[in-house]
Amino acid sequence: MLWSDPNNEPPKEMRDMQQMLRRASVLLALAMVVAMFVVGVH
């Protein structure tokens, strides 16, 4: 990439949405782990 190329950063809304999706996927993964643990205990 050349120094003269325009900076192609995504807009702030898209970055916020990506961060929210990342946070939601982490929470979902944690919930799956907890659910597997609960199912394994019973």
Topology record:
Layout: H1 12-41
Provide a descriptive summary of the structure in words.
The protein has one helix spanning 12-41. With 42 residues, the protein is mostly helical. It is built from one helix and no strands.
Keywords, separated by commas or semicolons:
mainly alpha; transmembrane
Provide a brief overview of the structure.
By secondary structure, this protein is mostly helical. It is 71% helix and 0% strand.
Largest sheet: none
| Average pLDDT taken over every residue | 88
Ranges where pLDDT stays below 50 over 5 or more residues in a row are none
Element order: H for helix, E for strand: H
Query: What is the count of β-strands?
Result: 0
Radius of gyration: 19 Å
In terms of DSSP E residues, the strand content is: under 5%
- How many H/I helices? 1
